[in-house]
Design a protein that fits this description.
CATH class: Mainly Alpha
CATH superfamily: Winged helix-like DNA-binding domain superfamily/Winged helix DNA-binding domain
Strand order of the largest sheet: 1-3-2
Number of domains: 1
Order of helices and strands: HHEHHEEHHH
Largest sheet: 3 strands, antiparallel
CATH architecture: Orthogonal Bundle
Helix content: 55-70%
Radius of gyration: 19 Å
Structural class: mainly alpha
Number of helices: 7
Shape: globular
Number of strands: 3
CATH topology: Arc Repressor Mutant, subunit A
Distance between the termini: 46 Å
Length: 152
């Protein structure tokens, strides 16, 4: 009989399965997004803006679960690519509104097929994708709630 390992086994870890799946999906997106001139994080920013047209930096960070230190360089790069525009709101100087440029909006049509291609590569049908997405959101919410309850 094979001896049991003394500690945790890599393939038994949910964290490793999530990590490997995330890397595989991101790697799948890479060549697709290269054709659009985008990185994966830039694509996520544009997805949020294509859905909402305009968001404050704060709301965009909340939607993407990114802090301002990570989001600001992303927005600067997208602005340099002339895909988004950042403007201080006239009614609240502390708030910065991010909007799509015409060029950023035009890119939307080229991105439309991407989710379908990635979904096909995952080998999951609509209900299975929905269930996976729901489970992952619940997992994220649970872990975030647990972390928030930890002593600081």
């Amino acid at each position: 009989m094979a001896e049991q390992p003394a500690g945790p086994v890599l393939d038994d870890q949910v964290c490793f399965a999530l990590y490997a799946a995330s890397r595989a999906v991101t790697a799948l997106y890479r060549p697709l997004l290269d054709d659009l001139g985008l990185t994966y994080p830039q694509y996520l920013v544009l997805l949020a803006l294509w859905e909402h047209d305009a968001l404050t930096v704060k709301d965009l960070g909340r939607a993407l679960q990114l802090d301002s230190g990570t989001l600001s360089p992303l927005l600067k790069r997208l602005e340099k690519l002339e895909l988004v525009r950042r403007e201080r709101r006239s009614d609240d100087e502390r708030s910065v509104l991010v909007t799509l440029t015409a060029k950023g909006d035009e890119l939307r049509a080229k991105a439309v097929p991407l989710p379908g291609l990635v979904g096909d590569a995952m080998g999951l049908d609509g209900p299975d994708l929905y269930e996976l997405r729901t489970t992952l959101r619940e997992l994220t919410d649970s872990v975030n709630a647990y972390r928030a309850a930890l002593p600081q």
